[in-house]
Amino acid sequence: SLESMTALGFRAPAVVVGLKPERIGMRVPRREKFTVADVGFNVGLSSPVEVLDVAIQSQLTPKWNLGQWIKYYETPFAKRDKVLNVISLEVSHTPLRQMVRPPKFVDGLDWGKKLWPKELKKTSLKNFNPTKPRSSYPKVQLYCLMSVAGAFTDFHIDFGGSSVWYHVLRGRKIFYFVPPTSANLTAYEHWCNSPVQNSQFFGHHVSEICRVELLQGQTMLIPAGWIHAVYTPQDSLVFGGNFLHSLSISMQFRIHALEAATGIDERFRFPYFEEIQWYEARRIAELAKAHGARKAVREMNSFEADGVKALTQALQDRMKRGVALVPDSRPAIEPEVLLESLVSLTKDIDLRVKCSNRQSWKATGGASSPQDSRSADGNRRAPIIRMR
Predict the structure, then answer these.
(1) Is 129 helix (H, G, I), strand (E, B) or coil?
(2) pLDDT tens digits for range 6-53
(3) Which listed site, 11, 18, 48, 363, has its alpha carbon 20 to 30 Å from 95?
(4) CB 210: neighbour CB atoms within 10 A?
(5) 129-168 b/e with 16+ CB inside 10 Å = b?
(6) Would the pTM count as exceeding 0.85?
(7) What DSSP string describes 10-37?
(8) Which of 344, 348, 352, 345 is nearest to 369 (CA)?
(9) What whole-number distance in Å separates Cα of residue 286 and Cα of residue 225?
């Protein structure tokens, strides 16, 4: 549930097993009645699709259309001359958006769903042009991934430190996870910047890797910042999506900065990452105004409170450097006013932290929250969670 995800901070990957999609508020097509041919029918056979050559981990040129991809996918394994992969086909502008819906608790967290102006999204979907895929909203909420047996995606972190929901409709997937500790993220940055990256296995640079097998019909939730590789042992069809949220703001900024440090092209970064932060700032400020700053802080758990501080610091820094990307919104976003409100909130948060004794904090009009067991870099030392 959204409540349990919020309380735990969504710090460890979770696998949902033994539950039908509707039990978690998710909608997907019936497996026995949906194939890659149905993807083509709903998206359009002439639609361009980015195809990854697994051997060299780069895109094929010239681009294929979806009809060419389906013909390849339906070719018997023994007759395929290459192992190819499609992992970036976003389909929220197609009829598939009526057939697929993420788990309910994802909608409850997703900034794109909660914060982005609905009129911008509606206009973008109505006027979507596949030859000019840049939308007027973060169009990353619904992907269709089609992988053949033997496909492998090397170690990576999802753009902008976004979290992921991932449902295997057909086939099977094997994930190799590395937790986002400070040491592991530093090792990952060095590996990405290494001139011999393509000949080095990232796993040799870390002390622990967790293997998770995701079976047909199962759903996985991947938190912010987790480094992972994915192997496909049999032809697979997957639906999933990316989202930013309020429980991992610090990690999301950490990964955004890491992308800059490793030279990730803007095309492959989370769209409107900077702009959506201001919508979150407005949400927090409006919450404090409606309920009072002290009550707003009292009702935050430590993950949300840490996020407010990280967001405040990041937006202050961008304003000072003159690089803040403030969205043109109605009602207008006033950066200085929002930051004044956030700074005030961070002072109340600091006061709550200082008042570590519950009674001491209550005496000042607040209430402490349970302390979280986390590592020095703010990440829970948690195993993979299996939700039934």
Answers:
(1) strand
(2) 888 999 999 999 899 999 999 999 999 999 999 999 999 999 999 999
(3) 18
(4) 15
(5) eeeeeebbbbbbbbbbbbbbebbbbebebbbbbbbbbbbb
(6) yes
(7) S-S-EEE-S--GGGGT-B---GGG--HH
(8) 352
(9) 28
